[in-house]
Amino acid sequence: MKTKFNRRSILAASAAAALAPGAALFPGQAGAQAWPNKPIRWVVPYTAGGLTDSVTRLTLEKTNVGQTFVVDNKPGANSLIGAEIVANAPPDGYTFLTVIAAHAANKTLYEGKLKFDPVASFAPVSLVGIAPIMILVSNDMPVKSVGELIDYAKKNPGKISFGSSGVGAAAHLSTELIMQVTGTKMVHVPYKGTAPALADLMSGNLQLLLDVPIGTMSQVRAGKVRALAMMSKDRVPGAEDIPTIVESGGPLIESSSWVMFMAPANTPKDIVDKLGAEVAKAVKDEALRKRLAEQAVIPVGATPAETAKFLNDEVEKWRKVITTAGVKIEA
């Protein structure tokens, strides 16, 4: 699915860039026009309407580089289809990618099985926002806090079934992290997406589900499932009534999905820096921050260097969880 976000006309943008003193040129292209001088393709490796797609579109609407962004949804294979497209794209500043937490896990889950590297094949542009994971239980569960959930799990090892949107998803690995830290044992039931898992949670076929608020908060508000906590240090804008995991009697375990913008590796640094700066500027926009808060997303707008460090830290964090839990996935 492709959507265009209009900016200033190509002619006006190109003329302004050409006249600007000290305008940046592509390396080795004397006399070339400044970037960008044509529409920019933006690959979202998930279907339209979800967290990744929504945050990408909202942010690009406020990001002004003087050109049109064309969002191209390429879902499938746990985001690998879209990621491979961008990994193989020319590093000329006209193809970008949005990734989420699963991208960091893929580095370990698919080690040696891919034709590209989830880290080395890309240049981080900006960490746009963070969506803390919410801990949900069915209304039949006799627990009202994370502390009570942990006690119940310890007394009933292997009797709690937890769902996720798939093996290796943030929801799955976050629950594995809780089990490792608390010494509990629960049974994983993977689904093809959050919606069927949430349906089984509401019906009582599942006891526990961890996921981001965007697809689950409406059912919490309707009283169909119970939210115990956010896996965050502080309360989350847009969900201030949900306690943090510590406030709910659990250990300080921070876990989230997040939205990150990436370019193909070897994209000129001046292009990456310019786009990163424009994204950071966009994320400061009050209207955008309000829209993100409605989805319980914490705006960030990190620099390329900060984003690279964040990604590396996430890769190592989930590598330990995946290795300890023995999580395996078919490539």
What would you say this structure looks like, in words?
The structure is a single chain. The chain is α/β, with parallel strands linked by helices and 331 residues long. It has two domains: 2-130 and 256-325, D-Maltodextrin-Binding Protein, domain 2 (3-Layer(aba) Sandwich), CATH 3.40.190.150; 134-230, D-Maltodextrin-Binding Protein, domain 2. Helix content is 37%, strand content 19%. The protein has eleven helices and twelve strands. It has a seven-stranded mixed β-sheet with strand order 1-3-2-4-11-5-12, sandwiched between helices. A five-stranded mixed β-sheet has the order 8-7-9-6-10. The longest helix has 22 residues, at 304-325. The protein is globular and about 65 Å long. The relative contact order is 0.18. Residues 6-31 have low confidence and may be disordered.
